[in-house]
Automatic annotation (TrEMBL):
Family, per entry: Belongs to the arginase family.
Swiss-Prot/TrEMBL catalytic activity: L-arginine + H2O = urea + L-ornithine
Endpoints of the signal sequence: none
GO BP term, pick one: arginine metabolic process
Keywords: Arginine metabolism, Hydrolase, Manganese, Metal-binding
Taxonomy of the source species: Bacteria, Bacillati, Bacillota, Bacilli, Bacillales
Pfam families given in the database record: Arginase
Protein name (Swiss-Prot/TrEMBL): Arginase
Listed EC numbers: 3.5.3.1
Cofactor(s) annotated in UniProt: Mn(2+)
Residues that bind Mn(2+) 1: 103, 128, 130, 230
GO CC terms in record: cytoplasm
Length: 303
């Protein structure tokens, strides 16, 4: 089935202060330089480069750890800007494709989206669940808290970015690929209604069934579905350039399959690809993998 596609608006967010390791800010350029525009053009996808959401430079490396929220001010500033940019793209009727950056930027993406969508569905590919708050976080790194903020939990300085947007309901959130979940996150998942397909579930059910059940959950109850793709969902053997790798992840083929199925569903209305860190590898391999997946999600065909 060929669905008439919207124009894809690419927003770069070269931000790394939500993560514990430096370098993930180089990712948007690494993905663009790997040939993203040409690849999409070849696949018949029209896209526009929206440029960068420029992060504040102050505090770089300062790591203010007050309240177990490292670099809070910078995270708030970049996400406020990103939320406005994403909102503007959606209002133009275009498909926002956000290139992170560390995963804290999902706070801004989700905020912008929920100003438009009344019942946003979220598919969160990740080795982690990013459901910590300052109280439960073992690290104070805000990239481990972004899904919690999206669900309205956590420090008010973060959750206020979502004010004015429609709340995301926990039953509309599906995590796929998780294998490193902190104690506080486990407790939340177990009584919140968030769906979490762990690596064990993927082993048992197969990716096709995982995606089928995900779409069944979201198809009739949401008015838009955002894909938030953390490359650490992948097995580090195939995507080593990421700051918090966890072994035993989603294989390249499983992820390709998932993204093609998501494309075929015609239900995905926005996406972000985060946590590629080009400084942790010598050959840009992980940025290239991200590029492959973006192309598949947006409709590139083998034949
Ligand atoms: N987006 C990510 N890579 N998050 C990693 C989070 C790791 C850990 N759970 C923490 O909160 O510190
Ligand atoms: Mn993540
Ligand atoms: Mn992760």
């Amino acid at each position: 089935m060929k669905v008439k596609q919207k124009t894809v608006s690419i927003l770069s967010v070269p931000f790394d202060l939500g993560a514990g390791r430096k370098g993930v800010h180089l990712s948007p350029n690494a993905i663009l330089q790997a040939g993203l525009e040409q690849r999409l053009a070849d696949a018949g996808v029209s896209c526009v480069l929206e440029g960068e959401v420029v992060p504040p430079s102050t505090g770089k490396g300062k790591q203010n750890t007050a309240d177990n929220l490292k670099n809070l001010e910078e995270v708030v500033t970049v996400n406020e800007k990103l939320a406005d940019r994403v909102e503007a793209v959606v209002r133009k009727g275009q498909f926002p494709l956000v290139l992170g950056g560390d995963h804290s930027i999902a706070i801004g993406t989700l905020s912008g989206l929920t100003r438009h969508y009344k019942n946003l569905g979220v598919i969160w590919f990740d080795a982690h669940s990013d459901l910590n708050t300052a109280e439960t976080s073992p690290s104070g790194n805000i990239h481990g808290m972004s899904l919690a903020v999206g669900l309205g939990m956590g420090d008010p300085r973060l959750t206020k970015i979502k004010e004015g947007g429609h709340p995301i309901k926990s039953k509309h959130v599906v995590i796929i690929g998780a294998r490193s979940i902190d104690e506080g996150e486990k407790a939340y998942i177990n009584d919140s209604g968030v769906t979490c397909f762990t690596m064990h579930d993927i082993d048992q059910m197969g990716m096709e069934e995982v995606i089928a059940q995900t779409l069944d959950l979201l198809r009739d109850t949401t008015d838009g579905i955002h894909l938030s793709f953390d490359v650490d969902s992948l097995d580090p053997l195939e995507a080593p350039g990421t700051g918090t790798p966890v072994k035993g992840g989603v294989s390249y083929r499983e992820a390709q399959f998932a993204l093609r199925l998501l494309h075929e569903s015609g239900l995905i209305t926005s996406a972000e690809f985060v946590e590629v860190n080009p400084t942790l590898e010598s050959d840009n391999a992980t940025a290239e993998v991200a590029l492959e997946f973006i192309a598949s999600l947006l409709g590139e065909q083998i034949l």
